[in-house]
Amino acid sequence: MLDPPFTSEQFLGIFAAYNLAIWPAQIIAYVLGLIAIGALWFKPVWTNRIILTVLAIMWACNGIVYHFRFFSQINPIAIAFAVAFTFQAVLLAIAATTYSDVRFERGRFFPSAAALLCIAYAMLIYPLLGYWAGHGLMTGPLFGVAPCPTTIFTIGFLLLARGKWVVWLSIIPIAWSLIGVSAALQLGMVEDFGLSIAGILLIAALFARGRRTPLLAGQTMPDKTRLVT
């Protein structure tokens, strides 16, 4: 595993400058997060579009403002990250503004429990772990405006999402969950271990759905033996 081209002090220094520059966007991010949760819980007419729009705004902020404007100052690869996060925002926006098949459902116990755990981790546990680890609040990554907690939050909703678009919306979050392991190991970002776990949960959920789909499709097929006269 390659060493990052910056120190943990530089990494947290970028977050300190970033959080100061975008204040009070952190509060707005929590408001948007609560709106998405409320849409999931109370099921208004525009539930799916509300959730997708909230996620699109968060990914756009991370891509354009954090990665491109700030993180690129210490990491040249951040330009590629900016492109990926902005592209994810575009995918989410397209899913929100067109008649895509993405829908969010609170269903069976395990997927719902895993999803709610990811959402709670991103909004509450992640910043508390960062504070406990000495990263501070305004000097560390925060929900909705930093890549890792935003990805965990998104994965929480993708665990509840259904439709063919879900696979495409999951590719970049899963990729970033793998990148998060390096931050956890090399930079001492203990809170980012939750990101890798969230990624594994999403991969397992997609794999399980993929295995069930052919079976369900097979159940709708007519019995060919009955067609023989």
Verbal overview:
With 229 residues, the chain is an all-alpha fold. It has helices at residues 8-22, 25-42, 47-70, 78-97, 109-132, 147-158, 165-186, 193-219, and strands at 103-104, 161-162. Strands 1-2 form a two-stranded antiparallel sheet. Helix 5 runs antiparallel to helix 6 (147-158). The longest helix is centred in the C-terminal third of the chain and has 27 residues, at 193-219. It is globular and about 45 Å long. The model is unreliable at 214-229 (pLDDT under 50).
**Average predicted local confidence, pLDDT:** 88
Strand content: under 5%
Shape: globular
Please give the number of β-strands. 2
Roughly what percent helix?
A: over 70%
